Amino acid sequence: MNFLNTEQTTWRETVDRFMEKEITREYIREHDAERAYPYSAYERIAAEGWLRLLIPEEFGGFGGDIFDYALMCEGLGKFGFDFATTVLVPTFTAMNIVKFGNDDQKAAYLEPFMSGKMRFSISISEPSAGSDAASTKTRARLDKDHYIVKGQKLWCSGAAARDVVIAMLVRTDSDVAKHKGLSVLLIPNDTAGLDIRKLPTLARRATGTTEIFVDDAMVPARNLLGQEGQGWEIITDHLELERIAVSAAYVGNAQTAVDDALTYAHQREQFNQPIFDFQVIRHMLADMQTQVDAARLLVYRAAELAARHQPCAKEVAMAKLFSSETLQTVSRQGMQILGGHSMLPEADMERYFREGMQCTIGGGTSQIQRTIISKAMRQR
Phi-psi bin for 265: left (phi > 0), alpha (psi -120 to 50), beta? Predict the structure, then answer.
């Protein structure tokens, strides 16, 4: 039983078929190997209208809910979380613009995003500000009708792709408490003064993880998202959406890791029989599928609560924690089942494993999720 109604099941199957027939695992494998951004796939997804899913109808979107979005993310993560990232990350900023943007910003950014002509990237972390994002040091000083921005950002996904606007967390006031002196600027990635460098990371090779050196970049004051000092509220507002979305994508990739290992176990023969016939392999696969099913149900629960606009911080943290660690676990066990074959790119399992290693860090570490869960468990 998957707890989905007919419409939801059809939607998930639609995305799954799209990934199988229109994108393909070979395409994703190739772009990972070449560290190349999947532009053509992104354009196909935009052409399907899926970038409009969460955007309210009044702005030209479909007005779908977060459960619909989670089902899409599960499908997009089928052949690797990195690919799903190319769609997920821009959406988080688009939804910030829906909530915090002024009319001019909504007009300037939302339709180009939905049509696939503009992407967004999020730049929060710095060398000395990771989980403690409020320690941001990158400075933005207002000079007449421009902000002068100077500093360094790190671990920014997709910032080096073309037609990208970066939602950058900056400090606009150093004389107040650190959470209150932050703001968000929308900065095109071709702005003079930005030096964006792709990093040779273990995972997220196609989307690209970057560091950004900002040397007196001039950003129009009209590019301020929300109000000065509202940055912390803005960057934390999308965390619920982000963590549900990435958790769903983890589950999609984890399921494929199990499916690939299961197929190999039936095809690979040793000692005159398929290795699936060995109890130790069957039990590994049983544990893997059980863990994936449990992760999926945690994600669906969190998404359903969020779609109903009910408080769900604990449930979202549980979904993020368990689904990310599930992808790590089943991809590692998949490596074991595939043996030496798992080390080859064409087996895909090594890519699932690499991306799984990143998943317990990005979007809030497992330690942060456990902290959120335990706080909710505190007896009053």
Answer: alpha
pTM of the model: 0.95
Strand pairing partners for 232? none
Radius of gyration of the chain (CA): 21
The upper half-sphere exposure of residue 2, i.e. CA atoms within 13 Å in the direction of its Cβ, equals 12
Instruction: Give residue-wise pLDDT tens across range 199-238.
Output: 999 999 999 999 999 999 999 999 999 999 999 999 988 8
What residues form DSSP beta bridges with 171? 139, 182
Round to whole Å and give the CA distance between 48 and 51: 8
Report CA 50 to chain centroid distance, whole Å.
Answer: 16
Q: Among candidates 255, 140, 150, 161, which has minimal Cα distance to 204?
A: 161
Beta bridge partners of 164: 119
What the chain holds in terms of domains, given with CATH numbers, is 6-118 (1.10.540.10), 121-231 (2.40.110.10), 236-377 (1.20.140.10)
